[in-house]
Specification:
This protein is mainly alpha-helical. The chain is built from 6 helices and 3 strands. 59% of the residues lie in helices and 7% in strands. The protein is elongated.
């Protein structure tokens, strides 16, 4: 076996600045990979939530559960019923929560970010850059906005399904942005580190 060793004067030791830039580049690539994985999960959850709404839609309550003689509306005061009985309908927010596993998942990052994407689609449109991690008061106001939109007298089940479908397109646009940024980072010259 032959080993070729470059002369010492041909090895280039990157400067501190170059090493720092390389660490930042790699950190950003990792963050983008995480965002892509999360957007994939959000898209799947939106797809499932659309199916929940297609199966049954409700206004002025989170869910409708099977009960004697038909369905019973479930609000925040009796959410335990959604865990005890089959859910036969949901509002926009309730559909996302139910698709994620039920009321115990309402504070999970996946549910919160999925609701962020739904609100963004409703108010900003799918083509604008998504704001990740709004503060808790802003996030709460957005959930209330989604709830008001769902409960508007003129709202229809089809419009709610359409919003969830359009939100999936938002995730596709955001994924394309992440991939484009990743490609740009991959094309960036890396600092040469001697072996």
């Amino acid at each position: 076996m032959t080993t070729v060793i470059a002369p010492f004067d041909q090895l280039i030791r990157p400067s501190r600045r170059e090493r720092r830039l390389e660490r930042r580049r790699l950190k950003r690539q990792d963050a983008l990979s995480g965002q892509l994985a999360e957007l994939h999960a959000i898209r799947a959850l939106l797809e499932e939530a659309a199916e929940v709404v297609r199966g049954g839609w409700v206004q002025h309550a989170w869910f409708t559960v099977a009960a004697d003689g038909g369905g019973r509306a479930v609000t925040a005061y009796d959410l335990r019923l959604a865990a005890e009985r089959p859910v036969i309908g949901a509002c926009l927010v309730g559909a996302v929560v139910h698709a994620a596993g039920g009321p115990t998942t309402v504070r999970s990052q996946l549910v919160q970010r999925t609701l962020d994407v739904a609100w963004h689609t409703l108010r900003e449109g799918p083509d604008r850059a998504l704001q990740w991690c709004p503060g808790p008061p802003i996030r709460m106001m957005r959930v209330l906005d989604l709830t008001r939109w769902n409960d508007a007298m003129e709202r229809t089940q089809e419009e709610v399904v359409d919003l969830l479908v359009e939100a999936r397109r938002t995730t596709d646009v955001q994924r394309a942005r992440c991939r484009a940024e990743q490609a740009g980072l991959a094309a960036t010259p890396r600092a040469l580190v001697p072996g």
